[in-house]
Amino acid sequence: MEDCIFCKIVREEIPCYKTYEDENVIAFLDILPLSKGHTLVVPKKHFKDILEISDEELCTTMKALKKITDHIQRIYKPEGIVIRQNNGEKAGQSVFHIHFHIKPVYNGTTVVSEVNHRREYSKEEMESIVKDLNMLN
Ligand code: 5GP
Ligand code: ZN
Fold first, then answer.
1. What's the pLDDT score for residue 137?
2. What local confidence, expressed as pLDDT, does residue 73 receive?
3. Distance, CA 19 to ligand 1 centroid (Å)?
4. Which of 58, 69, 114, 124 is the 20 to 30 Å CA partner of 40?
């Protein structure tokens, strides 16, 4: 895509701190990292989000993601790792070329928790939702 910033990175029209590349996927350091080693894993082909990407491209990207995550764990030995992927502006997506964040978490890294924003749903609400979303038959 002409104007997409990650497509420009893929085409090497703008620079990045690249850590991984294969035929289908690249990974580079986030320009505004949460922590040391915060990496973005990006399919080279342009897809906007999880709804648009093909199963095949997603699987290929996931395999690279796992490999890169293992590597970061081995090198930096963080206490934990957050994998995050935002879809849509309301969900926090700011670059509309699908990407996965690998965010190493160390002692002192601030991880924003959503736990205080959750609430229990009533039995009736849960039953209604499970009826709406049931894919079992
Ligand atoms: P999103 O908010 O869409 O989930 O994540 C986009 C990420 O891309 C942000 O964390 C942001 O810091 C990063 N980012 C935006 N522009 C650039 C860029 O030009 N280069 C790099 N390396 N990262 C970028
Ligand atoms: Zn793109």
1. 83
2. 98
3. 15
4. 114
Q: Which among 42, 45, 75, 48 has a CA at the least distance from the CA of 61?
A: 42
Residue 8: per-residue pLDDT: 98
In the annotation, is 99 catalytic? yes
DSSP structure class, residue 72:
H
Flag residues of the chain having pLDDT under 50: none
Task: Name the token pair of 135.
Answer: 């894919």
What are phi and psi for residue 95, nearest 5 degrees? -115, 120
Quote the pLDDT of residue 36: 98
Q: Which residues line ligand 1 (CB under 6 A)?
A: 5, 16, 28-32, 40, 86, 92-95
Ligand 2 ion local residues (Cβ < 5 A) = 1, 4, 6-7, 46, 97
From 9, 11, 39, 40, mutation site for ligand 1 pocket: most ligand atoms within 8 A of C-beta: 40
Question: pLDDT > 90: what percent of the chain?
Answer: 95
CA–centroid distance, 118 to ligand 1, in Å, is: 27
Residue spans of the domains in the chain: they are 5-119
CATH level 2 (architecture), domain 5-119: 2-Layer Sandwich (3.30)
Catalytic residue (one of 38, 71, 97, 99)? 99
